[in-house]
Amino acid sequence: METPDPTLPKFLQEEELSEECRELISSLPTGKDIIIPHNLHQYQGFWHASKMLPKIVTCQNQFEARDSDIFLVTLPKSGTTWLKAIVFALVNRTKYDPKSTQHPLLSNNPHEFFPFLEFEPRNPNGVDSSSPSTPRLFATHLPLVSLPESVKKSGCKLVYLCRNPKDNFVSLFHMLIKLRTEEMGSNLLEDAFENFCRGVSSYGPVWDHALGYWKESLENPERVLFLRYEEMKEDAGNQLRKLAEFIGCPISKEEESFNVVGQISELCSFDHLSNLEVNRTGKLLAGYNNSIFFRRGEVGDWKNHLTPQMEEELSEECRELISSLPTEKGLVSGNLYQYEGFWHTSEILQKILPYQNQFEARDSDIYLVTLPKSGTTWLKAMVFALVNRTQYNPNSNQQHPLVSNNPHQLVPFLESEPISNGVDSCPTDPRLIATHLPLVFLPESVKQSGCKIVYLCRNPKDNFVSLWHFTNKLRTEEMGCISLEETFDKFCRGVELFGPFWDHVLGYWKESLEKPDKVLFLKYEEMKENPGNHLRKIAEFIGCPISMEEESFNLVNQILELCSFDHLSNLEVNRAGRLSSGHSKSAFFRRGEVGDWKNHLTPEMAQKVDEIIKQKLGASGLTFY
């Protein structure tokens, strides 16, 4: 019999392993947990403590899921405790009033209400998994591939919450350090970070874990709800409503009238839970102190721990390339680097350079290409509504995804998070992908495939004015506003993100003349002047033309109304909160007018832009109003 290691939590201090489990473990790749000194083994592509493996295998073979089950899935230290509290309060709100002084969350740690599937697979945390009560609430850290087959095949609901990997690492590091004895020491940040980046952490790699559930949420959105911790923190109320709708207990109008969302948010807030006596003292059955699950709960705390070198983690090749490029100060913060004739941030270069050869385009893909502030949000909304009109009726009022989501959340940017957002392996068909990248910078597979590219450009003077306003919304109070004159000078020199303007539009203009079946070139001003005919043109080009029947019930106008500037800009989802990029959603809606440049540019400025455009585009046949 093995002697239990007193430094490990109780759920890792189990009886001697069976011969079958020993054989399984001996056949697996082995790693070492840097922080808690025990072995990790790679099973089905993910790392687990050796004594967790028998539990996982038992769970896979014996657990019987029900269609009514609700599973909360996270990586450790990704908001598990908070999510458990919120879902418990939501599901049980008719039984336990969220504002009651007798609420179970006031006298119990949230982990006591949600058994972990893999910790005690036959009888998780002492809770009888054969109980007839519905819905049963379970939690798990297991990757998608390791879930029991009965879970994958059932009609149960999976709620996945992920967190910025840098904050996830820092929070995990602090938690595991608390489990170390004084003799072990605690100066391990660098070594732990190296392990984390190699994917060697419990239930890791982080990216594979998140990507598995992300792809599943796209393929089966009725079964898997994918949430981000940062968006939950930014807009807890709307995320809570979305969660309630998904798990089958939506917030009623009556409940809205007495602020049940606010009551649950307050009950389950970090400050409230962490200060309860039950969460400051005592232990769970697993052997953890209740207090270990509450540290700071902040977004961006990684900046207080990780060095710039850790954050960057650039390859030497990429470092050398970027350091050799021409550089100019950007409009918001940091530098821009000129690569292949266009200006980019180092962050975008780091993401897209390796991706140019890795990304796999499909013939059915649809790419929406714009320069920033050229109608991107409007175009995303219209094409999303067009492509999905059989699934989502544009006239369905509050049920359409565009009513509850910012268009940027529905059509991802290729260059923003090309790997982690799952663009490259999204199972939906067609895939809708946006980009600001110039033609020369597109991945080779996009250029060689039979995909469709819709390019929308805007009068350069209106584009500049809109960009200037947008830039100042992104600048901090300490930075102050950047002047119109300074921004204009950079614009005219081509020093703007993804610029120069004229080279960007010229690349796609020429491509549209050579390959009109692949590239549709549109002008914002013409779209505003006659949106109906342009919507029909887009629909025809991307392969989903408007039918006679659809014309008969005025589908085009329904989509135009749904996607109009006035409608989108006044939606609550677009007036409050932030995107995962950190940008305020309201920043993407200003005026959307044609000719607003006349209210900002002097006659000399307007003439200078006209002269540059004539010089750069004169021989191409491309003109602007």
TrEMBL record:
Residues 67-323, 363-620 form the Sulfotransferase domain. One of its GO terms (molecular function) is sulfotransferase activity. Keywords: Transferase. It holds the Pfam family Sulfotransfer_1. It comes from the Eukaryota. The keyword Transferase applies. Belongs to the sulfotransferase 1 family. This is Sulfotransferase domain-containing protein.
